[in-house]
Structure formats: C-alpha cells, structure tokens
Design goal:
Strand content: 25-35%
Number of domains: 6
Shape: globular
Number of strands: 33
Strand order of the largest sheet: 13-20-19-16-15-14-21
Length: about 750
Amino acid sequence: MKISMKKNHKKTTSNQNKNAQKRRRKTKKGSTPKHLQRQQKEKENKRIILGFLSSHKNDAFTCKEIAAQTGLWHNMSNNKLRAFLDRLTQEGKVEYLDKGKYRYLPAARAQTLTGQVEVTRSGMGFLLMEEGDDIIIPPNALGKALNGDTVKVRILRKRKKEGRKEGKVLEVVKRARTEFVGTIEEGLPGRFFFTPDDNQIKTDFRISKSKVNGAKDGDKVLVRLLKWEGRIPEAEVVEVLGKSGTHQAEMHAILLKYGFQPAFPEAVEREAASISEEISKKEIAKRRDMRQVPTFTIDPEDAKDFDDALSLRPLENGHYEVGIHIADVSYYVKKGSLIDQEGYKRATSVYLVDRTVPMLPEKLSNRLCSLRPNEDKLTFSAIFELDLQGKIYKQWFGRTLIHSDYRFHYAEAQQVIDGKLKHPMKQQLLLLNQMAKNLRSHRMGTGSIEFETDEVRFELDENDKPVRVIKKERLDAHKLIEDFMLLANRRVAEFVATMFDKDMPPPFVYRIHDKPDPEKLAKLSVFAAHFGYKLKLDDVDYTAEQLNRLLLDVQGKPEQNVIESIAIRSMAKAIYSIHNIGHFGLGFRYYTHFTSPIRRYPDLMVHRLVEQYLHKSFKANPVLLEEACQHCSRMERTATEAERASIKYKQVEFLQDKIGQQFEGIISGVIENGFFVELADNLCEGYVPVHSLNDDYYTFEAENYCLRGKDTGNILQLGDKVLVEVAETNLQKRQIEFILIQRLETKAAKRAAR
C-alpha cells in the first residue's frame, strides 16, 4: 500500500473510488499511518545508535551514556533504549559486555562456533559444548536448525542473570537426519501438512499434493525433508505406516523414529539364506567336544534367540566343571560380509513391548546360532573348574561343540529350584544356583552395586490393546544366569588384559563404567535424606557400600522405585571403549561383553578378538576399534530410548479408557509447573499441573524437591504417597494427566514412623 509522504498531497474523497477509501481508512488527511511512523522512528534510532557506536569501535558504553551522547534521552526512556539495544544484540550488530555496557560488533570480530544443537521440548535450543556451559539459543534464533543438526552459531551476548552466552544460528552445516515420522493432515483441499511425533522438532512440514504418495488425512507416515526455503520446510511422503493411533502403525513409527528398520535388505537376506546349516567333520575336529556333558538353557518364555547355555559335571577331586557356552556367531558372520555390515549398523537388537527387531537375520538369530535343544551347536565357551563356594581353580577359553539337553524358561527353572517340579536336571540346577549365590555374595562384598528397579510387561488382547500391566518378577533363576554371565564377561576381559604385559595389553573392547560425579552423589544424599535415609559419602572407596546399604533399606518400601531411579541417574553411563578404567557399578577392574553376540555387536567383536589372541594374531586396529565402540554405545542408548517409547505408549493406551478412575501412587518428580506421579499398581507415570491445585497458590522449592502452598503451608514433596484421578490421556504426545484427589502420606510422617 503506497501512501504519499508529501504534506500537501490531496487525497481523493470520491465515494465512487473504493480503493481510495481503503487507502485513507483510519488515516487522517495528509498524515503518515502510525505503524509507518514507528518503523521510521526505529530505523532512525538504529542509524543514530549504530553510527555513534561504530565511530567508537573500541569503546563500550552504558545505556545512559549512549542516551546522553546521542540525544536519544529526549524521546526514549532508559528501559526502552535498553530493550532496543538488546534487539540489536540479538541481530548481531551490538555486543553486550559486563557491567551493563554495549559495544559495536563488526562482523569480523563476531565470535562463531560450530557444533551440535539440542532443542528441548519447550523449544529452547542449546549449542552443546565439550567444556563449559552450553550456548543458549532462543527459539526465535534457531533459524532453520532442527534438533541434532550441526550448526554454525554466532555468539550475541552474555546473559545478565545466568552469565551464560547466548547465540544465533547462522547456518546449518549438516542435518542430523532428513527423515521424520509423524501424522499427515489435510487442511484446505489439496493442502497437506505433516506434524512430527518428535516433540523436539518444533515445526510442521508442508507437503504438496503430488508428494503425498497415497497418504490420507490422519495417516502415520515417514517423510523426507526436501528443502526449506520459506517459512516452513517442504517434504515428501516416503512410506505410509497406517492409521495414526493404531498399534502396528505406532510401533513401526517408533522403530523408524529411532533409526531401526524392521526388515533386512534383500541382499542381506540372500547372503543369510546361502549359509550352510551343516557342521562339517573338519570343523568338529577343531573344537572341544562337549556334547556328552549335561547342558541346558534358561530364557524368557517367548524368547527365540538363545545366546547362552550352561553345563555342569562333577570332577574326581570334588570340584565341578562349569561350562558357559555362547553362540559362535563369529563362525557364521564373517568380518566385512553384508550381514556383518548390517549387524554393525544396527549394533543391537531392539525389544519393544510386542516384538523383537533382531540385529541379525532370523535364519541366524533364531536358527543357526540359537542354542536350541536337541541340536548340535557351535559355541565359544568359557570353562571353569570351581568348588561350591565359587572359588576358581582353572579356566579355559575356546571354540566348542555342544548339544543342549533341555530348554527351561525362567519360571519353570525357578519351580525346579524351589522343589515344586521334578526334573532330570534338578541336581545341576541346584548346584549351579548354590555356586551363583556364593559368586554373588563375593561380588557384593567387593564393591558391586545391586540395582533392582521394577520393570513391566503388557498383556495384550487380540486387538493388541493392553489389558494388564504386569511387574516383572526377578527370580533366583534370573540371578543364576546373570552371575555366571558376569563371571564369563569378567574373566574373559581379565584374560586378555593380563595375557602378556599388564601395562601394554592388546587392543580390546571393554565395558567400562566411570565413578559417579560427586555433585550428583551429593544431590542423591540430600534426596535420600528427605525420606529419612542417611548416605555418607565422605570416602569414595566406601561409596558402593553406602549405596548398597541404601538400596537394601528401601526394598519393599513405596519409595523404592523412586530412590533407585534417582540413584541410577546419579551414576555415569556404562559404555564401550578400548581404554579400560574398570566398571564401578560391578566393582570389576576388567569387564567386557562376551555373552550375547546374537543381539549385541560388541560381543561379536570380542569373540573375534579373543580368537585372534588365542592364536597369537594381533591385527586389531585400535583407532577403528574405538570408533566402533563409540558407535555401539550410541546405538545402545538409541535402542533403550525406542524401548522406553513403546512402553510409554502402551501405558498411555492402558489408561485411555480409565478416565475418572482413581489410583494410589507416589510423587516421582517435582518441577516448577507441577509434579509427576508413578502409580503403585502398574508403574504408569503421569503429570499433575500446578494450575489444577485449587486449594492454594503453590511455589516450587528446588532444594527441597517440593511445591509449597503460600497460605496453607501444604507441601507436595518427592516421595509423598497420593491418590490421583486420571484426567486426560494423549496418545500422540504420549502424555498422561492426573488430578490430585488426596495426600495419603507425607515423607515427614514416614520419618516420624521410623
């Protein structure tokens, strides 16, 4: 719209000229519209400020000094000028220094950094820094960056309150990904928009009618980003997964969101199909034949990939020979083959609530390598001579041939151990269970930490709807297998690390776990104190002992799961590395993963390395090994996130038809805007927003992990037992909202009862 700036210009007033009427609507004769006046004024102020600052490039000035020097104090308040200067700072024209001073920022002096950006659910961005505080990037400064992208950022200023630097994305150097999962919606006829499932992606995508590829309104789809030239990015539909909200579509979407393909490439399947199932006499002759030793497996009832088997036979000296036999995947999967490349890419099997997405094709994972009963199988074994106390006298590692006599599932093995079921393998089970208990007792006495957090599984109906949430029970049969696997993993790592020179061991894949951060431990101590538990952390050597005592004290208490979860969060993350620092959580100086090569790629790497070193071959490249370790650690974390996403989805779905029903739970988290509650019966976690608390105005006290009522003094604190009502569920966002009905028990009451 053009408006003359000449003061004496005469506008037409003819009733017949409608366009002229529109132009002068809300505009007096001969005047400039107010919004244009403001724009002109801002433009002039900007010219004056930048002109002044650029003529004093090396000097910094306060707000008052700039106002006085430029004469802007006549028509602009100090607060308005400061806000104006802050805008110029965000534009990268001016930099903010300490003590409220501003300075001209020429492009050549602007600090730029390149790194990965992380976008939170609230939309705030952070440039992740290896050292020091992350750089804050406000939502309006993210530009076209998406969560995980590698970006170039200009540092704009240092925030006054937090003292942290703030920046603006100048350029997306590399996209973290170009494919996204979400729901397609049709707005006006022929106009489609895509909303990502990932709530860290804060933009919708536009999809032209020619790029929807058969997708309909409300479908769950996989899209590919094509370009981002305008306000929002443009994409095309790659695959239609099904109707949004249906079980199959949502589980498929979770897998694709985290980068896991349910199906294997055809070339990989063809290579797997070509592998012979026969075991040649030549291969048998190379191996230690263990087929005559009583052998069995113990696995979940629905498992098909049996990685490990145990054997036991008495020796003449009163000791026992225990064989820990692991599927010899390395015999079938040759390094560099298509199967190996795909296995490395996946790095792990993924376990959702209703399915397993294997690391290896089914022929290998469920048939050739799986230690199924009544079949001869190729294995890589750790064989020990032990007494009943678990003392080791001899050990041997190498390739073997076994024949599993029986396949137990955990509940069945437990019945045999408890004497409730007769079985030919009863004696072997009882002896191994006794040894496992002694191994565990020794392990706990030397620094292992025993975390026993609750896990859940879902009972699904014929339509895949969850009808029951069941807490998984940890049996002695589980612990039996766990302790012998820990034994094999520890002794294999120790064998390699000490086989020649302890100071110069050959390159190897270790499973390492660093000591916890003292600051996080201090917070855990404060947290535990709110429940009445004392955690003394003065001496780092006694940290494990103190943590075990805490975990033992909370067993069976309502707060058990909350405290164990916080304790786990205070720990460092276990990762794979060639640089051994030991495993803090287990209290082991040497540890690796040897026992699950069907479902973990690092175990396959370990098998290959041990085989090489047994034959005195040292060809391992440490640089490539460390790179593989980092990749496998990343994929392990990603698989865990996918598994948790599937559990959360089913928890929301389980409560979907229970709106208005009431459940007891425990406050599992407190933030400024509300608190989280974990239900006692089914471990579903939901949120109670603070605005739904009508009895008072509540403020957040971070140091006390609570919300406190301003007038009543009522406290809602982490660990309090409460009664809540299911208010709302949102499957798309995977969120549950509760209403607080009643406080049932406070931590103060618990402490008084002790």
